[in-house]
Amino acid sequence: MSFNRIAPYFERLEKIVFNNQMQCCRTAFLSELPCVKKVALIGEGDGRFLVELIKENKFEKIHYIDSSEKMLELARKRLQKFSSNELSLVEFFHCDLMSESMPCQNYDLVVTNFFLDLFNEQGLKKSISKIAAACEETAIWLYADFQISSGLLPRVRSLAWMKVMYVFFRVVAKIQSRSLIDPAEILESKGFQLRALREFQRGLMKAELRQRI
Ligand SMILES: C[S@@+](CC[C@H](N)C(=O)[O-])C[C@H]1O[C@@H](n2cnc3c(N)ncnc32)[C@H](O)[C@@H]1O
Fold first, then answer.
1. Which listed site, 42, 48, 104, 187, has its alpha carbon 20 to 30 Å from 134?
2. Is 161 in the pocket of ligand 1 (CB under 6 A)?
3. Would you say the CB of residue 44 lies under 6 angstroms from ligand 1?
4. Under 8 Å CB-to-CB from 85, ≥6 apart: which residues?
5. Distance from residue 68's CA to the centre of ligand 1 (Å)
6. Which fold would CATH assign to domain 7-212?
7. Sequence spans of domains, the chain
8. pLDDT per position as a tens digit, 134-177
9. What GO terms describe the biological role, i.e. biological process, of this protein (predicted)?
């Protein structure tokens, strides 16, 4: 799996297809987060969420973890353009969570935006277990992703979207999964209970705030 090829076009493509809805979904709970020490952004792509997170000014250290060199480069450049003063706040890790461990432990907040949908069931269990094992006892997990909407017509519409998107990403990025798996059960088995949920694009996307309690 590699997002290097698609990285330079990711933002444009997303805006053509979904306008600003994915970014609204990523940032849905940002203003409601408490101040925390250590944050891990996992599979975080080209850095648009990172800049919004930094504007909140609530975090002491951010670890930016991605397996694509191109995505990491775009995120680093975006951060530099936004504010070079903030560079010391962020540490970038070129890390493939399928084959490597989390670079550090004791995270208070972990964020997976449009990341968990890349994995098949085995990959999903593996990645969630690794992330959860690196979290503090009361950690927060922010999660944004696609979902299969409820109701007949929205369901048909979302299934059609998923089909198109999975074929596209299997070709351009060689992603593991062929269909969307809801990670709720695995997240709950690791103690991350749902605290709040918001839906976007008529239920095609959801943002969840989960916490270990
Ligand atoms: C669909 S993109 C989403 C990017 C971003 N989070 C967003 O909301 O647009 C998935 C991201 O996960 C990264 N990724 C895929 N597999 C990974 C893995 N095994 N370990 C770490 N990062 C991975 C990709 O390089 C890419 O940046």
1. 48
2. no
3. yes
4. none
5. 7
6. Rossmann fold (3.40.50)
7. 7-212
8. 999 999 999 999 999 989 999 999 999 999 999 999 999 999 89
9. methylation
